[in-house]
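Please check the following.

. . .
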Amino acid sequence: MPALPPLASVDDVASRLGRDVTETEAIRLEPLLSDASAQVRRYCRRDFLMHAAETQVLYGHDGEIYLPGSPVQSVQSVALDGGGTFLPDIPVPWFTFDGVQTIRLGAGSGIINLPEAWSETGEYPGTYKVTYTWGYADVPDDVNMVVANAALSVLTAPTAAAGVIGESIGPYSYRLERGGGGVAVALSAADLMLLKDYRGTVRTLQARLR
């Protein structure tokens, strides 16, 4: 599986730094941005990419199909899934999309209208093939900000510890830490608060992708 692109760029970090980054800093930023992006994706349970006309095999329940990908942009088609049996997939034209994340199946699309072969053998898998477009055309600004600032905090730390900021003035000194340790990027409690609205819920009815 190819690596996902970072959710912020070197230029995003440079704009916050207020100057161009050096060649050495640019080399350091590449893994820092990738690490911060991976943490954000893991916490939010989403990849922040655009999935155009992706077909997923999903379970239907009580005349409704929940779409796990979000935000949903549009729904192209719905079909009864043959489930690898001798019957083909059957298009379902009688559906409505609520504009958020749920497809409702209308009259003529329910179990009572299954082909006779499925009804007699009981082999209907109970799944639908749904083709829909979902995701983000651009990384949200606050997500981009969290990733860029997380990488910047390590880049500008005066020690090898992640996000540590310190200063000495004569006999006095102080030391603040953003979080984490070593040279690893760490998300702060404030970062998680900013990301909470993007955190996906664990309600996946997805069977497989096609």
User: Anything to note?
Assistant: The mean pLDDT is 80. Residues 9 and 33 are 7 Å apart (CA to CA). Strands lie at 50-61, 64-66, 72-80, 90-91, 95-97, 102-105, 127-135, 164-169, 172-177, 206-209.
